[in-house]
Amino acid sequence: MKIFADNLRYIEEENAKGLPYKLKVTPFAHLTNAEFRMTRLGTMPKSRSFTGNGANTVSYEGSIEELPAAVNYVAKGWVTGVKDQGICGSCWAFSTTGALEALHKNLTGELVPLSEEQLLDCSLSYRNQGCQGGWMSNAFEYVADHGIDSEKDYPYKSKFIPFFFPIHLRCQHNHTAVIAPHSTRYVNVTSSKPALLAAIALSGPVSVAIDAGSRAFQHYGGGVLNSPCNTTLNHGVLAVGYDLEAPEPYYLVKNSWGATWGDEGYIKMAIDDSPKGICGILLAASYPIAA
């Protein structure tokens, strides 16, 4: 109870400051920040693919003023409902499927939830580590080679497997893929604000990695998060839009901690001018494209 009381006091004190964001009692209100970081976040594996399946790095030479002032793929119908990864360190898989779901919607008109479990079970040879972590670009490389099933055909079973649990996964991909092998590839995004905004505006939702370990992120409840945070990447999420004309410009980001965290599972993260972006959001962005 002391931890909860301490967190509640912190939430109330921060909310009294008139900040552009609000905190609330989230599913992590019973955890200290150290416990939250230890059980819900992890270090992204060092091995990240930059070259597989013809991956290019895309940049943007135009001005931000030439881009749409606001983009929202949730409103556009390209984004599936918020999912919950549980205590498994599978954020990278949820970020990957979210980007692929949007691409599939754009290409076919069908919004189909895709299988995170397949990525956990089957992409170990692509330098991912199941519930112990992974990279979205590595997962995109796997999907380019093998395709991916629907969530219905290959359901998520790892919700209660802690990230530190030994890898024991067994691939059960049966090749009834929603997205066929060799039908996609992916690109990495140059680490700059214009490049990320252009990728979102011109291509669709973008997989990004961030440092989600701040106390404000743990208890986030709405508004535009602009509090200081580190840039040690430890969490994969999906950038599904932005708004440059809001009083506090922001990226709209879909998380995978269920709909009771944040703003119905989403967070608005401030668009700032720092070289790495808020919480490192510019450092490791990538997205799939049709082959």
TrEMBL record:
The keyword 4Fe-4S does not apply. GO terms for molecular function: cysteine-type peptidase activity. Gene3D superfamilies: Cysteine proteinases (3.90.70.10). SMART domains: Pept_C1. The keyword Repressor does not apply. Signal peptide: none annotated. SUPFAM superfamilies: Cysteine proteinases. It holds the Pfam family Inhibitor_I29. Keywords: Disulfide bond, Zymogen. Residues 67-289 form the Peptidase C1A papain C-terminal domain. GO terms for biological process: proteolysis. InterPro entries: Papain-like_cys_pep_sf (IPR038765), Pept_cys_AS (IPR000169), Pept_his_AS (IPR025660), Peptidase_C1A (IPR013128), Peptidase_C1A_C (IPR000668), Peptidase_C1A_papain-like (IPR039417), Prot_inhib_I29 (IPR013201). It comes from the Eukaryota. Belongs to the peptidase C1 family. This is Thiolproteinase SmTP1, putative. It comes from Perkinsus marinus (strain ATCC 50983 / TXsc).
